[in-house]
User: Which sequence fits this backbone?
């Protein structure tokens, strides 16, 4: 049975832990709001870009581009977008569980230290490791995208997929693996990254016409690399929004649990202290009765 001194030490330790988790919750909450707004703000642009691509494709006729080339898949590549730090619940665990199911002979590219650590533990081939800021910038996404585009264009891989945590809501983040290269049917590209799994035709809306100079094919050829760069950028935004949301929820749960443990320890301490006082009073009373 623990002594009152042991309980006081445990109570002090739990109080300190609760203060730390509460502070981390507040920090994550502030970052979460900013990251969520950035992820949501990028979705309309992605949808509009898909619409413009569909319009250019419709006017380009028999257009071909190396990034659209579909060939027999001899080797794949997977971009794994994870966090740099832990303490974000099961976010990385769920994502890496999906990545573990991927082709073990594939070439891996990591964005985030947790992904690189997983690839090393799984003894899979790591082609490159990238980092990205707390607030991702487009240049970071362009670097990652350019690297995998070169792998694809040089024929080192025939398909490039991306594993990332898709932001659904503050309480829900869904691990997903999506194909980046080769670019699929542009007219049936996903309209957004909302995670609802809805696919819709992105042909220009009725009454909306686009004029392309010098030609739809030339515009499409220059727009495809930018489209891939922006897709990777949006994946990074989604991953950061998921990370801060998961960390805020995890730290809130940790704080609530610490408060409950503190309540239980305080009750146990009071009971033990009360029993100790009662025993001392009984000893005094017994001694007085013995003396007479």
Assistant:
């Amino acid at each position: 049975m623990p002594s009152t001194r042991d309980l006081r030490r445990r109570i002090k330790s739990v109080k300190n832990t609760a203060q730390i988790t509460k502070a981390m919750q507040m920090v994550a909450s502030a970052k979460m709001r900013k990251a969520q707004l950035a992820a949501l703000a990028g979705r309309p642009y992605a949808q509009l870009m898909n619409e413009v691509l569909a319009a250019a494709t419709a006017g380009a006729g028999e257009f071909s581009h190396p990034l659209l080339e579909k060939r027999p898949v001899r080797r794949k590549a997977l971009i794994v977008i994870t966090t740099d730090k832990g303490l974000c619940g099961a976010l990385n665990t769920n994502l890496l569980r999906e990545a573990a199911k991927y082709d073990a002979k594939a070439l891996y590219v990591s964005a985030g230290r947790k992904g690189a650590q997983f690839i090393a533990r799984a003894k899979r081939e790591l082609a490159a490791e990238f980092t990205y800021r707390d607030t991702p910038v487009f240049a970071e996404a362009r670097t990652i995208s350019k690297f995998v585009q070169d792998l694809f264009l040089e024929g080192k891989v025939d398909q490039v997929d991306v594993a990332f945590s898709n932001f659904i809501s503050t309480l829900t983040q869904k691990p997903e693996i999506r194909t980046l290269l080769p670019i699929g049917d542009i007219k049936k590209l996903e309209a957004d990254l909302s995670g609802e799994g809805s696919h819709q035709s992105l042909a220009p809306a009725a009454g909306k016409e686009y004029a392309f100079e010098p030609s739809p094919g030339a515009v499409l050829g220059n727009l495809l690399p930018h489209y891939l760069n922006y897709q990777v950028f949006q994946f990074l935004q989604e991953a950061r929004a998921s990370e801060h949301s998961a960390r805020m929820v995890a730290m809130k749960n940790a704080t609530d649990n610490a408060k409950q443990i503190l309540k239980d320890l305080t009750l146990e301490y009071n009971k033990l202290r009360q029993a100790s006082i009662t025993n001392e009073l009984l000893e005094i009373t017994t001694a007085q009765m013995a003396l007479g």
